[in-house]
Amino acid sequence: MLTFNAFIWVIGLMLVAAGLLIAQSVYRKPVSWLLIAGLFGIYMLNVIRYTFFPFPIHSQLIELMHTAMSEQGMFRLNLIPFHSQYYSSIFQDKSNYWNIVMTVPYGILLPLLIPMHRKRMLLYALGIGVTIEVLQGLLNLVLGYTYRTVDINDVIFNFIGAMIGWELLRLLCQTTFGKKRLARWLPVVVKK
After folding, report:
1. DSSP state, residue 90
2. Which residue among 16, 32, 58, 123 sits deepest, i.e. has the most Cβ atoms within 10 Å of its Cβ?
3. CA dist., res. 158 & res. 131, Å (int)
4. Using one digit for the tens of pLDDT, what is the confidence trace for 18-66?
5. How would you label 81-96 residue by residue, b for 16+ Cβ within 10 Å and e otherwise?
6. Residue 110's closest CA among 163, 147, 150?
7. pLDDT tens, 130-185?
8. Which of 128, 104, 108, 105 is nearest to 116 (CA)?
C-alpha cells in the first residue's frame, strides 16, 4: 500500500510553497492572504490524504481486488441519495459525519482567499464533493477495481460541511470582533 508518507508530504508542501511564491511574486498578495493560502494548502493535502490514501500498489493486492470486484455486487457505487449500502440508516454511518467535519474548514478558508456571495459558495461547496467522488470513480476505472466507494451521500455531506463553514465565517464577520479585527486584517470576506 502506498501511504501518505513523509515523502509525499514533502512533495505536497513543496507544491504549496511554490504556489505561495508565485502568488507573492506575480500577484503581489498580502502576507495575511499568503498565510491563509498556506493553511488552505495544508488543509487540502489532508483532504487528499484522507480521501485517496492508502493506495494499493502491490501486485498481489491488486490481483486480489480485481478478483473481489469480479464477484457480483462488489462494485461500490451509490447514486441514491440518503441510502446506505451497509447500514439500515445513513445516520448510523459515522463516515457521513466525518465528511461534514472534513469540509467545514473548506467553507471557512476558501472565502478568506476568494471573497464570495452565497450562490458562488453553493457552487464551490458542491464542487468539492463532486470533485472528490469523480476522481475516486476515475481511479476505480483506471485501476480496474473498486478501491473507493463512489457515493452521492459523500457529496451531500461534503456540501453540508462546506456550507456550515461558510455560514460560521459569515456569522463571525457580523460580530463586533469580525467587524473590527477581521475586517482590518482581511478584505471583504463574505458577501450576501
Report:
1. G
2. 16
3. 11
4. 999 999 999 898 888 899 999 999 999 999 999 998 877 777 777 777 6
5. eeebeeeeebeebebb
6. 163
7. 999 999 988 888 877 777 889 999 999 999 999 999 999 988 888 887 777 776 66
8. 108
